[in-house]
Amino acid sequence: MAELVFFSGTMDCGKSTLALQMDHNHAARGRQGIIFTRNDRAGAATLSSRLGLATGAVEVTDDLDFHAHVVQLLSGGGRADYLICDEAQFFATHQIDQLARVVDELDIDVYTFGITTDFRTRLFPGSQRLIELSDRVEVLQVEALCWCGSRATHNARTVGGVMVVEGAQVVIGDVAVSSDEVGYEVLCRRHHRRRMTAATARAAALSPDVLPFGSGDRDPAPQNAS
Ligand SMILES: Nc1ncnc2c1ncn2[C@@H]1O[C@H](COP(=O)(O)OP(=O)(O)O)[C@@H](O)[C@H]1O
Ligand SMILES: Cc1cn([C@H]2C[C@H](O)[C@@H](COP(=O)(O)O)O2)c(=O)[nH]c1=O
To answer: Regarding beta strands 162-164 and 46-48, do their DSSP bridges make them parallel or antiparallel, or are they unpaired?
Structure first.
């Protein structure tokens, strides 16, 4: 039976890489897929991974109807055994419902990939609908790490190097960008709550105001902050 699966994790945990690997593995066994994405950093109609791989994709727009798209393809003699959908957090909720229809009515597997929460720790509407409708939600095994070494569970946005908690939900960007741009950093919940990025932690560790002893609530010096 076909299934709707949501592969989720923070930014930079390998979702797009897994999407490309899944497409490769299915195609290697003679299955035919359609790749969709929306707002990939590499540009329109592209699915790209930080490991350097990229492939062409159908760019998802507001008016794209997944069910109609696939039915049209099949009616024209085309074939689709599975769909790969990257950056699915940016899909509209009714588009996630269309994906569920593709699974249930056309018996086609749909593999979706995306982050669950935004920089304010709020669910993206598309991700919320995926959690509600998916047969399975899979959390990626490769753990992105907070600067403290704990598993990163949340995405922080920085503007000019400073963590912000207000602004538009969607701003396309990347981790490890220069400090005058909008950027992102993955953090554990503790450090997201304290708004403590690698740069803030480094500054605090260097500050002469910080006593060399303290309560058990102190944070360690950043391990990989440069
Ligand atoms: N130079 C590198 N060497 C090995 N692995 C890397 C390198 N650069 C990035 N990666 C891996 O790629 C992952 C990011 O992959 P990507 O598919 O772009 O993530 P996502 O789609 O979740 O944002 C990182 O977590 C890391 O494991
Ligand atoms: C947290 C957060 C992220 N985004 C954007 C930034 C990137 O363009 C994508 C995530 O891509 P990745 O492949 O998972 O790294 O989402 C956003 O628009 N708003 C946010 O709050």
So the answer is: unpaired
Q: Are residues 21 and 78 in the same domain?
A: yes
Assess: ipTM above 0.95. Answer: yes
Q: By alpha-carbon position, which residue is closest to atom 17 of ligand 2?
A: 170
Compute, in angstroms, the gap from residue 81 CA to the centroid of ligand 2: 28
Across all residues in the chain, what is the average pLDDT?
Answer: 93
Q: Could you tell me if 53 and 154 lie in one domain?
A: no
> Where residue 41 sits, what CATH number does that domain have?
3.40.50.300
213, pLDDT greater than 60:
no
Question: At which of 116, 139, 162 does a domain end?
Answer: 139
List ligand 2's pocket residues with C-beta within 6 A. 11-12, 15-16, 41, 115, 118-119, 155, 157, 169-173, 184
* Residue 87: active-site member: yes
Ligand 1 atom with minimal separation from the 9 CA: 22
| Cβ within 8 Å of residue 88, ≥6 positions away | 6, 38, 96, 112, 113, 114, 126, 127, 130
Give the mean model confidence (pLDDT) for residues 6-30. Answer: 98
Same domain for 117 and 150? no
User: Domain range spanning residue 176?
Assistant: 143-226
Asked which of 49-53, 61-65, 211-215 is least confident by mean pLDDT, the reply is 211-215
Q: Whose CA is nearest to atom 21 of ligand 2?
A: 118
Q: Which helix (H) or strand (E) holds 112?
A: strand 109-114
